[in-house]
Every structure is written in structure tokens, then in C-alpha cells.
Amino acid sequence: MAYTTRLRKAVGAVRAALAQVGLERQSSEFARHGEHDASPDAPLVLVACSGGRDSMALAAVAHIVCASLGLRCGAVIVDHNLQPGSAEVAKHTAEHCGRLGLTPVVTRKVAVRESGEGLEAAAREARYQAIIETAGEYRAAVVLLAHTMDDQAETVIIGLLRNTGIDATAGMPPRFTRGGVAFLRPLLSLTRADTTGICRDLGIEYWDDPTNGDGIDGPLPADYPLRSRVRHDLLPAIARFAGRDVTRHLAESAALTQVDKDYLDSVAVRVAARVVGGTDGDAVLRIDAARLGTEHPAIRRRVIERALQQADIRAGAAQVDAIDRLITDWHGQGPVHLPSGYSANRKKHVIRVCQDGAHANR
Predict the structure, then answer these.
(1) CA–CA distances in Å: residue 228 to residues 45, 121, 154
(2) Does residue 265 form part of some domain?
(3) Same domain (yes/no): 145, 283
(4) Does residue 317 share a domain with residue 184?
(5) Of the residues 103, 213, 296, 315, which has the fewest C-beta atoms closer than 10 A?
(6) What is the dihedral of CA 168, 225, 145, 67, to 10 degrees?
């Protein structure tokens, strides 16, 4: 079949993303015309598929690319069991993926347990856990996620609403590792209109999540997910104000900011290796305040945030600032109280993070 411009663009984007992690043509036979079966032990590329237009387009394109490279291509489908009929949607999605030629096609049902950060966050955490477990079980080389340029623009807006600093505007990275599994987002240069068109080009059926708000006229109800309201209400309002579509502008800005963020993170990792220590008696971590105090504020904050995250302590910006003042404005002040019953206390040149009461006991 003749490829449309958007399909060629998607094929190139997926191929380039796989090449970045070393997944290229497995042998010269796959450069020749005709169909060639991938080896049973060829690397497996898994597509995280919800059944929506973006992930169905990615599943189809990934299968095309993997077949041309001699890679195996499968799909993992997560049923969150949050909406009536979710099992049926998962079943139909699995059938569609099978008809596209993907194998294995794995469906995982998860129990979403809200932990105080909202249902969206809980569902996302459960979804990632299921995908990571599936990738490990099938020894997948990489997992592909179907986020598009539109998703990136929405993520930037949500970041500005919820967070502060450079990380708020960096959006989603095109590649990352979580739970020992490599993830790629190859469609960040394509729009939702592109993926819709690819589904139409290839005759692919897809499912629209009703919570996305598609088909609703007027502002979405307040109980709809924030991302849906940003998509249908806020971004169109910004576009009307600016007199143009701002999706590409936000996504391209995020890509540039991501480069800066990656550099700052890499410096922070090197500094942390010198100034942050692990458990010591009652302390879950130790920070050399004297040595960290010589670093730029941007690096200091990142080192503190990274150290707390690795200790599984979810501190806010105000608490990170307070720990930073233990470094730069030390005059004998008391401990900084942190979530989960922890506190940070400075003695001489060392900041120790302990469970409350452990400082006094020591």
C-alpha cells in the first residue's frame, strides 16, 4: 500500500526511537522485499495499548517497523476496571492488536487503590506497575507509549498549574527507565490529528474514553479529569487568546527545556555522589552541608530533592527550601519536619534525615 505523509512520518519516528536504544535491523534479509519472520529470540518491543486512537495507531506502526527490522512486536493492555464495560473494551483491544499481527498480546486487570493523590495518579501507578511486570515476564527490550504532541502540550500546562521551576515546563521525556524497564515515547512529534488519520488510513477501529470529554459541547464538568478539561477548555481558550494553535509551541519549548533539565540532573547526580550518604544509625540519609553549600542553588535543590526521593520521602518545595537554608543560612535553627514522620536536622557540617525523635535519642 502507498503510505500517506503522516504514516511515513510515524514510521520514521518509531524507527528513530528504536535506533536510540540500539534496536536496529537484525539481519540483511530484512532489507530485502517480501515478508520475513522474526527469530523467536529476537528482541521484543511491547506497545502499551489502551484501545484509543493514539495507541492503536502506534500499535499498527510499531508492527510495520518491527517487521521491517526483524524485531518481535507485542502489546500489553491494562484494564483498570474503573468504568462499566472496561473488560469488554480490553477484550476488543486485544482482538484488534491480534488482527494487526502483534504477538504476544497480554491483558492485565489491575485494582486501583487511591492513596491520597487522586484517582488519576493511582490509576497511572497501577498501570505502570502492570506494564513493568509484563515487560519483565516477557523479557521485553523496550515498551512504547503513545503520547503525542497534544499530550505533551497538555502536560506542560498541567505542570505549570501544579508545580514550579524548570521541571514544570519540561513535559514528558522521550525516553526514560522505570522499574528496570526502558520506555520510549516515539510519537511526540505527531499530533492527535495525525494518529486519527493513521487509524483512518489503515482502517483501524479505536475506542474513545468517555472521560476524555470527546463529543461534549461546552465546558466539561468539574469532576472530569484535569487533563480532559485542559484539552477541551483551557488549551482552546489559550489558542483563541493567542490567535493561533499553541500546541506545537508548547511541545517544542518542552523539548528544549528537557535538554536543560537533563544537563542539570546529570550534574546533580555527580554532586550527590560526593555529598550524600546512605543510612547511618537512625539516619536514612546524610548530606554534607559544607560541601553542598559550594554548589549553585539549582544544583543544591536538585541534590536535596533527589536524596529525599531516593529515601521515599515526598517533600514539597517549601520543605526543600527549608533544608537548603540549613545549608546556606545555618544559625542553629531546629529541624525541618518532613512527610511520613521524618525530619532533617543539622549538626556541625552534616544534615541527618531521621524518623522524628531519633535525633534526640542520638
Answers:
(1) 29, 14, 9
(2) no
(3) no
(4) no
(5) 296
(6) -150
In order of 83, 112, 123, 124, 183, the CA distances from 117 in angstroms are 19, 12, 10, 11, 23
Both 200 and 331 in a single domain? no
Grid coordinates representing 118 are 487522586
> What is 56-101 written as a DSSP string?
HHHHHHHHHHHHHHT-EEEEEEEE---STTHHHHHHHHHHHHHHHT
Closest C-alpha to 52, from 229, 156, 236, 195? 195
Domain end residue (candidates: 157, 180, 207): 207
Note the pTM of the prediction, 2 decimals. 0.88
Q: Whole-number mean pLDDT of the chain?
A: 91
**152 and 299 belong to one structural domain:** no
In a domain, 187, yes or no: yes
- For residue 76, the cross-strand partners are 48, 106
What whole-number distance in Å separates Cα of residue 172 and Cα of residue 185? 9
Query: What is the separation of C-alpha 281 from the centre of its chain, rounded to a whole number of angstroms?
Result: 35
Residue environment code for 137-165, b if the CB has 16+ CB neighbours within 10 A, otherwise e = eeebbbbbbbbbbbbbbbbbbbbeeeeee
Task: Tell me if 290 is assigned to some domain.
Answer: yes
The pLDDT score that the predictor gives to residue 299 is 97
Domain enclosing residue 198, as ranges: 5-207
CB of 191 within 8 A of CB of 3? no
Largest alpha-carbon pair distance within the chain? 75
Q: Does residue 273 lie within any of the structural domains?
A: no
Q: Which pLDDT score is estimated for 362? A: 47
The alpha carbons of the chain give a radius of gyration, in whole angstroms, of 23
- Based on the domain organization, do 191 and 305 belong to the same domain? no
State whether 173 and 284 are in the same domain. Answer: no
pLDDT digits (tens, 9 = 90+) for 201-251: 999 999 888 777 676 667 777 778 888 899 999 999 999 999 999 999 999
Tell me how many domains the chain contains: 2
